[in-house]
Amino acid sequence: DAVGATLFSGADWVRDAAQATGTSARLVGAWDGDQLVAGVAGATSGSGWRRRFMTPHLLPHTGFLFRPATTDRPAHIESERSGATAALIEYLQAGHARIHLTHAPEVVDTREFLWAGWEVQPRYTYRIELPEDRSSVWDGFERRTRTAVRKAEKTGYRVEPTTDIAELRRLVLRRAALDVRNRSSLCPARSFIRIRVTSGNAPLTSHIRARHAGAAW
Predict the structure, then answer these.
(1) Which helix (H) or strand (E) holds 215?
(2) Which of residues 21 and 85 earns the better pLDDT score?
(3) What is the structure's pLDDT at 120?
(4) Environment class of residue 83 by beta-carbon count within 10 Å: exposed (0-12), middle (13-18) or buried (19+)?
(5) Do 85 and 64 touch, CB atoms closer than 8 A?
(6) Mean pLDDT confidence for 159-184
(7) Do 43 and 23 contact (CB within 8 A), yes or no?
(8) Nearest to 67 by CA among 34, 39, 41
(9) Contact criterion met (CB below 8 Å) for 13 and 77
(10) What is the pTM (predicted TM-score) of this model?
(11) Which residue(s) pair with 98 in the sheet?
């Protein structure tokens, strides 16, 4: 339920991505007394002046996480998250020569990062509603996208929902490993997923996989 938390900020994803890229997974927490109020997920590599803390190259984002609001007072929420952000920034800067994090779309307040001298590059995520009648969604795709989908259907690919998160993680890491081996960028780390699909106001708990001749891709 943390603000900024996604499928990819979970310990399993961070650990697997770090292992695949030869880095070390790291989860750091910010505490207020005995209460965990924020954290940051990432990976470390190098030592000394080359030590880095980053979003693992095989994940679209990790970054900062904040506990859900415990009050309806905006000033209190802002104060808690700003203080936790500043503390985490100070900790990261003290132990790392370079830091590069890609945050989830829910993390929108960049002031503490700017005040600390960080370079901030805003990016955008498209959220696509999935009504019962999907014709409006289909009509909104570019012509070349619709053509690519039709071509895939003719060659035997099909799309189906799945709740098997382990399979999804395995497929992502396998594809990313092939890209690294081939020195290609078919699945670049920070553009792998730009769309968060929602149904109404709630994120879907199922995910999508494509199959061809019985194999998942």
Answers:
(1) strand 215-216
(2) 85
(3) 93
(4) middle
(5) yes
(6) 70
(7) yes
(8) 39
(9) no
(10) 0.66
(11) 52
